[in-house]
Amino acid sequence: MSTSVPTKPVTTKSYIKDYPRPQFVRQAWQDLNGEWDFSFDDERAGDAGQWMNRFPEGRTIIVPFSYETKASGIGEETFHPQVWYRKKLTLPAQAEGTRTLLHFEGVDYKATCWVNGVFAGEHEGAYAAFSFDITDSLNPGAENEIVLKVEDSQSCTQPRGKQRWINDNFECFYVQTTGIWKSVWLEYVNATRIDSVKMTPDIDRQMIRFDFQMQGLEGKNNLRLEAEITLKGQPVRSLSLSVDRAWLTVETSVLHEAGGPWKQSLWSPQNPNLFDVEFVLYEGEREIDCVASYFGMRKISIENGQILLNNGPLYQRLILDQGYWQDSHLTPPSEEALIEDIDAIAAMGYNGLRKHMKIEDARFLYWCDVKGMLVWSEMAATYEFNDEAVERFTREWLEIVPQQYNHPCIITWVPFNESWGVPQIGREVKQQKFTEAVYHLTKAIDPYRPVVTNDGWEHTVSDILTLHDYVERGEDFLAMYKDKDVVVNNGVAFNQWKHAFAKGYGYKGQPIIISEFGGIAFQTDSGWGYGNQVSSEEAFLERFGSIVGAIQATPYISGFCYTQITDVQQEVNGLLTEDRKPKVPLEKIREINLGK
């Protein structure tokens, strides 16, 4: 188990502060965050009243914060099923002669957009990014008006994660999020352009594969795509290929070209090396598109019951991270706040995190890439099982996986947690087959990362056996886990009545991780933690050390995930308070995590 501290990060060549999509960077863009006109529409009168043309005056909101948050300038936590936004703007001169794309990084839940009164598009799903080409609706040289209607519900068939579906917080469910909650921005592009690039590293062959999707090739016959790859400012590889179809694939060697032993160029928590790459599309000799990006050469795999990173054993010391802030809830208050959380996690001796019930801001994943922080990416749950829930969940998850695919920091996909949304998975074949289908669909897009099908218990097909156990004492943990065969063969109950595998499924030698435990809270009357509350720093550290030490002393366990980094509203079991103040010295947590 390495105890080295990650090297000081250096940003990629493509980095632009606050740029919403840091793995696919163009220079011509416009930030639309800030003040927008806003209106509640509880009577759903907006469509009939033509609000897309005659927006009601009087109220504003600060985007991208949802109206429930103080940061939005409104701070009303009452649920409203329909809200409207308006933004007036004049386009810059650079927009002339280009296509204008309107990007929304996250809107909860169904968004319908008009530009200058003309329908631009709609999207359903709170956590996936989406965009509309609004060029043909714009008024060049004049003021333009973007209007967005957002419909939300308290339905448990929509993926909602930790958002409550009743009027008050309860258990581990918090104030809902409605409307725009991630960045909104414009991008100015050529009609003929690079639409996406899927980047797949292969360290065993020392190759990188680029899968390009192109846009607007109709009538074009003299297109050329060039790529320049560098590492730490040094040239690595140049590529040039003719573009004659919308989908292109090319592979190239990289590691042995980087200078020095190739293993020193791999991405890991200790050395988060990132290759910069620039893609340029030419029509003849004229440059018509330029995208800057980066990738990491790393491999996550499972062999003989062990999780391997770059073909070497990986012991995962993770922390649960729900990504909530006191005044802005699911939306980070700033890019600096994201960086501070990652730095705090590293300072406590963790080498990764499980992003719980949330698809996080792309800038967060960027900084995890840069700083070498491992990430489990987890889908927000539904809380009912029926055809509508299946369709909504699957459609959105299949948007999210490709959007996050290129981040080297992501090493595990987690589509389901604790049987949420599949409450009868233990015995009901239909729900079991749904999780199998999602597992295989995820593997169809990304066969290179492990998939945890139902984190916590009642697994069906799963690459890792993950267990949630909030036993308080290390000695009790050791007694329960002393016999591996008993644990993996459903001889131990979790959460009183759950077992490791659903009926009809069994252990096939998977690595085992305790992916939730701890949750220790200090004495308080205003919230809850797991088990008995503690009254002093000394008592906290003794219990924390007891349970962490027991997990580390169990030889067949491949890692752990402690609950959790911060307090979240009524759940006060964080190592930090909701406003990020440490409850105990971070170095003491680090010493225990690293076994010092």
TrEMBL record:
**Key words, A-Z:** Glycosidase, Hydrolase
Q: Does the keyword Transport apply?
A: no
The UniProt GO MF terms for this protein read:
hydrolase activity, hydrolyzing O-glycosyl compounds
UniProt key word NADP: no
Domain Glycoside hydrolase family 2 catalytic intervals: 301-591
Superkingdom to which the source organism belongs:
Bacteria
Domain Glycosyl hydrolases family 2 sugar binding span(s) in chain numbering? 30-186
Query: Could you tell me which residue ranges the Glycoside hydrolase family 2 immunoglobulin-like beta-sandwich domain spans?
Result: 192-298
| Biological process, per Gene Ontology | carbohydrate metabolic process
Residue ranges the record marks as coiled coil: none
Protein family membership: Belongs to the glycosyl hydrolase 2 family.
The protein, known as: Glycoside hydrolase family 2
Q: Which organism is it from?
A: Paenibacillus yonginensis
